[in-house]
Structures are given as C-alpha cells and as structure tokens.
Amino acid sequence: MTTQYDIAIVGGGIMGCAAALQMAAGGMRPIVLEQGDLGQGASGVNAGTLSLQIKRVKLMPYALRGHHEWERMGDAVGFKKSGGYTLAFTEREVELLHERQKLKAEAGAPISFVSNNALRAAEPNLTQKVLAASYCPEDGYANSSLTGQYFRARLHEADLPYREGTRMTSISQSPAGFEISTTQGPFHATRLLLAAGAWLKSAAALLGVDLPVQARINTVSVTERMPPLTSTVIGHATGLLTMKQKANGTVLVGGGWQGRGTPQEGRGEVMAETVMPNLALAQFALPALANARVLRSWTGFEANVPDFYPLAGALPGVKDAFVLGCVRGGYTIGPYIGRLMGDFILGREPELPLFDPGRDFDKD
Ligand SMILES: Cc1cc2nc3c(=O)[nH]c(=O)nc-3n(C[C@H](O)[C@H](O)[C@H](O)COP(=O)(O)OP(=O)(O)OC[C@H]3O[C@@H](n4cnc5c(N)ncnc54)[C@H](O)[C@@H]3O)c2cc1C
Fold first, then answer.
1. Is 230 helix (H, G, I), strand (E, B) or coil?
2. What is the domain extent for residue 185?
3. Element counts in the chain: helices (H) and strands (E)
4. Which residues form ligand 1's pocket by a CB distance below 6 Å?
5. What contacts 61, CB < 8 A, 6 or more positions away?
C-alpha cells in the first residue's frame, strides 16, 4: 500500500526543512524530497552572514526574529553573535550608509553609528581610510556547511521522513491529492509545498504555473588560516562586501558578486572578473589580507523575483499547493519564515504576514 502523506515538500534547503519541522510539530505528516543532499543548495554554500545591517527594511521584523532562531540553534550550526561593522570609504558611501541604516534602525534593528576611535579600538587592523561606520551588536554568522547535517538530525528527532537523491520530475493532481514522480519512484500527498530555491521556476512549471523567478549566481571565497585579524562581521555600505574570520583563522569573503551558469546546468562557474574586485575590496578594508592566499572560491544559486520580496503562500491557481522561497538574506530569515509558512499550511494565523506569490510583480 502506498503511503499518503499530508504534505510533500520539494526542496531540502533551510526553507523546506524549517517549514517541514513546524508542520510536523503541528501534527501533520510531511515528507521532504531533495534531489541531492539536504542543504546542498544555497543553504549549504552561502556566506553564512547573519547581519541585520544588510537586510531590506521591510524584512527587518522577519530578520530580527530569524536571529532569535539562530541563537536557539547555537553551536550545532556554528552560530556566533560577533557584532558587525559596516564601513563607508567615500562621501557618497557615507550618505548611503546614513540613509540605509537610519531606516533599518527605525524598523527595529539596534544599529548605531560609531566614531573612528571606537572602530579602531574594536578593529585595529581595518584600514585607516574609513570615513564612517555603523555597528550592530546582533550581527554574526553561522557555518552554512553544517546546514544539511543540522536539519538531518532535526528531521530524525522529529521522526519526519525525508528522501535524499530524490528529484521530482513531474506532478499530477487528482481529487485524491498529488502524485509526485521522482527519480526514486512516486510519492503521494494531499498537499504540496515547493521550496526548491533557484529551481522554483522549473518546479512550478510542472504544474503549469509560471513564477517570475530568476537565479543569481553569488560567489564566496575563503583564505588560508591567518593570525587573528578581525573579530566581527565586516560589511560595506554598498553591500558589495561581507567578511568574517572564522575560529580556525580562515577569512570568508562574499558580497553577492556574480559568477556564471544556471541551476539547470549544475554548479556555477567562478569568474575572475568578479572575484578580483570582491577580494580587492576585502583587502582595502583589511590590508593584512594582502598576505593571505585564497584557497577556494565557489558559487551558489540564489532565487529572487522582480520586487525582491519573498514568495511565501499559496501557489496561484493550484488548490492545496504552496510555494516558499526567493527570500533576500534567506539564510538569516529562513528558519523563521519557514515556521510562518508551516503555520499558514496548518491553518493557523502566521505571527507576521506572508508574501502572496500571486501578487502583481510590476508594482513596487
Ligand atoms: C553564494 C551565496 C551566498 C549567500 N550568502 C548569504 C548570507 O551570507 N546570508 C544570508 O542570509 N543569505 C545568504 N544567501 C541566501 C541564502 O543562502 C538563501 O536565500 C537560502 O539558503 C535559500 O534557501 P532555500 O531553502 O529557499 O533554497 P536552497 O537552499 O537552494 O534549497 C532548495 C533545494 O531544493 C532542491 N531541489 C530543487 N529542485 C528539486 C527537485 N525537482 N526535486 C527535489 N529537490 C529539488 C535543491 O537541490 C535544493 O537543495 C546566499 C546565497 C548564495 C547562493
């Protein structure tokens, strides 16, 4: 006899796993289907920055609550609340920094501006060329390479079934629910949640729905182990730099610089044209990086839609189907918005509003 699950969740990233756990806690029987390993998508290759300073203002309430989730997850995900500085080197960047951080502070983030003396006392190895800096004590980071193993353990604990190496290839819907064909055979479920990250467009297309999802190909680099250089998360007013030194001495550098490739083609390609300016900005901020060798640069696919707000709600035109993804800063916000999505599917009122995937994307 085939098992009929209450819901099949396609995508074992942070969104799908967090939603699955919430639904299981609420009494549902979900199954998670993941084409590779849990956390092998964006959730397992990202820069791990958990910074309120680089979040969109409207998403601040979600990011603030997301931070509390990370505190709860703690050491198991390499969480560290280090505090973070965002730097401006030119007058234009100073303006930008003031403009952006003021709005974020008004939205509830504990961000303040600090004097150059205070910055130098806290981070003596940063360049002397900083014109202005903001600080947020809540900022920090986690180790994204632990995402898969963390959620595998949580799913086990919750006795929640998941299948790795199981790619959804087609879906059909009947009054009995969904039949999801996969590379490991069919699965049956009453409801369906697509949490397929940068693969959301092709996943929704299997149900005849055209989601305006695009993939960005973000690049991250890591240096060899260095003596202690910085103890906080360092960002740049433009958002083009995030940097932190891990406990083992390596320095992780990101900032959304783009590589090449598509999610359908497999792993993206790193491009020297974008990695070099990313590393140059890192070295400008932290001159001692001139002595560091870069061990590895890699890419990952991040999904977004034209208005850069999440897709979180009912899949337009398909009864009992839902979609969750395209969250800017989705690693930070993922555990929280996953819970909200779980509540929504359980028929509970989510604590904060979700983001209708059927909205008009041409409006702001
Ligand atoms: C390089 C990089 C750096 C980033 N840095 C940060 C950062 O520092 N801080 C931050 O907050 N955010 C960051 N992000 C964003 C963040 O990582 C993502 O928003 C978040 O991880 C998305 O989670 P997700 O679960 O929606 O997607 P994913 O983690 O991509 O999960 C989707 C899963 O669906 C699976 N899947 C797809 N199609 C199918 C199918 N047909 N059948 C079965 N399974 C399928 C995929 O294999 C994948 O595992 C970064 C992203 C990237 C790419």
1. coil
2. 4-43+146-211+306-345
3. 9, 18
4. 10-16, 33-36, 40-43, 45-49, 167-168, 195-199, 203, 218, 220, 242, 254, 300-302, 325, 327, 329-332, 334
5. 107, 108, 352
If residue 16 lies in a helix (H) or strand (E), which one and from where to where? Answer: helix 14-25
Q: Are residues 172 and 300 in the same domain?
A: no
Q: What is the mean pLDDT of residues 325-332?
A: 96
In a domain, 128, yes or no: yes
Total count of domains within the chain: 2
CA of 266 to the centre of ligand 1 (A): 14
- Give the pLDDT confidence score for residue 364 in this predicted structure: 57
User: Per the domain annotation, does 193 fall within a domain?
Assistant: yes
- Rounded distance between C-alpha atoms, residue 294 and residue 289, angstroms: 9
Q: First vs last Cα of the chain: how many Å apart?
A: 49
* 222 domain residue, yes or no: yes
Local structure of 338: helix, strand or coil: helix
What pLDDT score does 183 carry?
A: 98
Q: Supply the pTM of this predicted model.
A: 0.97
Q: Are residues 188 and 324 in the same domain?
A: yes
Q: Give the model confidence (pLDDT) of 83-126 as tens digits.
A: 999 999 999 999 999 999 999 999 999 999 999 999 999 999 99
Predicted confidence band at 32 (pLDDT cuts at 50, 70, 90)? very high
Residue 53 tokens read as: 């300073």
